[in-house]
Amino acid sequence: MWGPYLIVCPLSVLHNWISELEKFAPSIPTCMYHGTKEHREELRRTVLRAPHLEKHEKRYVKAVKARRSKGGRKSTGGTKRKSTKGDDKLPPLAKEDFPVVITTYEMITRDSGYLSNLVPEQPWRFIVVDEGHRLKNMDCK
Predict the structure, then answer these.
(1) Edge-to-edge strands, sheet with 30-33
(2) Region 97-122: what's the mean pLDDT?
(3) How far is Cα 125 from Cα 127, in angstroms, rounded to an integer?
């Protein structure tokens, strides 16, 4: 089942998540979404570009949006993806090649506008939160 999938963890265990996925699920692509602003922009332009969705997947997305508009869980915002120079030079990304995104709480707060709409018209299928107490108290360390 294709995602997209997001894993949010403390910086201290970020590399552990990457190595565990590479060890136990080597065929699943992963992307460590961390680094400088320029590095993250490059990741978004290349590794995390939106995959091609089939018609039945687009219908699923429309159904999810319809459920949410009828009083379900609402989106917390987000921005439209900006076109980046050079995107048209890259070959289309197959959805099977879209990676599991592994990042930290800090990157989520910095890039929430982008990450909330990573794949246009496709919500996160699963989000794994390591040490979820950060959800209750964003000021904790």
Answers:
(1) 30-33, 100-104, 5-9, 126-129
(2) 86
(3) 7
